Amino acid sequence: MKKWLIRILGSFVAILVLLLILVRIFVGAVNVPMGSTTADRQMLAERIVVPAGFSMGLWAADVPNARVVRFSRAGDLLVANPGLDQVVLLKRDADGDGKSDGKQLVIDGLNSPNGLDFYADWLYIAEEDAIGRVKFDHDAGQVIGSYERIVTGLPGGGNHYKKTLKFGPDGLLYLAFGSSCNVCIEEDPRRAAILRYQPDGSGEELFATGLRNSAGFDWSPIDGHLYATDNGRDLLGDDFPPCELNRIEQGEFYGWPYANGDRIPDPDFGDHQDARIAASIAPVHNFRAHNAPLGITFIRNKLFPEEYRGAAVVALHGSWNRTSKDGYKVVSLHWNEQGEITERDFVTGFLKDDQVIGRPAELTEGPDGAIYIADDYAGAIYRVTYGEHQSLQIPVQIKPEKYDPSVTLAILDRAEIDALFTQGEALFQQHQCVSCHNDQPDGKKLSRVGFRYDLNDLRAHFIKPPVPMPVFPLSDADRKALAVYVIKTY
Predict the structure, then answer these.
(1) Is the separation of the CB atoms in 320 and 291 below 8 Å?
(2) At 153, which CATH number?
(3) 36-50: per-residue pLDDT in tens?
(4) C-beta separation of 128 from 191 below 8 A
(5) What range defines the domain where residue 280 resides?
(6) DSSP letters of 230-271?
């Protein structure tokens, strides 16, 4: 009788263990952690949708904080990594496997480099507070000599500290950088504007103003005009104001901070009687609110179907303060003979059911005619082309909850935790963090922070926080105290 009972109990335990294993496998497949299998990644890749006849492939992975991208004359791709203070080079696809042949460092020790462009034999780099240049050997993919800052003293910090740089058809250097705030009157008129310089950095002039954050711009090969994206302000609800595409004319004013969209007075700074609003230039196209259009490039190759020639593709980085997420895709803009613009989806699937696997930040047309997309969330470069088969495996960045707050804070003794908590609470109130991090529909609620960051991660996060969070003047001790408060409270 005892043997029979032991056999039954043994079978029951075996079945229970098997069920636990199956549950574990099922949960792992649903959560898709960083170490996901190729099958899981392929499943996510099947979310990506491109127009008929097009395909998207993963051209390079392990490119953290990938932002602005520019091709060298030799076909190598340079990538600005502002969070790492460096520029890297992704080697051309010499073996024809549809992927970069490797990565090498071009230059480091920079200050949040974002803008990149080539002119003559120089590589130009836009840093947070300067413009620099260095000679560049395109064949070797290396800089020559020392790096020289030709423009210094640019205003940095604030919500939109990154600068975008590009040379125009006139051979002059154009520089765009955004506002220091969500909405305010800027003390420095160079903020929220596009500037223009001679190639040696001289002759600074305000080219266009009233542009809150025109992170991307390009010249149309059809009409020759300069077009720039612009991010609308935050904290006015889910659906207002629109983000914008503006046709940029020299000397014109585009409305911010007094107006949003088509000359609609801002509730904080606008006035229906304000002559500046009446004289401002309205956008030529509205993107959905909070979609955050960044990079834009016009299609110049003849490999794409006729309907795409002269069209533009735009990277929508995605929302941060909507009730439900929106954007997180690449769209194409098509002009008709009357100059009217139609927006179409070009690459979608980075967002599904409020789950994000990628954030397009910048794009460029390659020497092969393909469109290359920088994703600063997944740390990847994608290649989109027509009439060619490509397989795609998304470098998944859906992070598991990997920290235990009690373990994180266990490195501190109780008295130190209490002191840091009190100091951190005072800093949280002093800098009015609750004005953005709240339970309101347009707020960004803090939730389970201690499961997503440890103390070091969070302290580093405060040094260069993602837009639109401002950079506060915190000491390392302040950052530690604020991290303790946030981890314990949220």
Answers:
(1) no
(2) 2.120.10.30
(3) 455 556 666 789 999
(4) no
(5) 41-386
(6) EPPPSSS-SS-SPEEEEEE-TT-B--TTTEETTTEEPTTT--
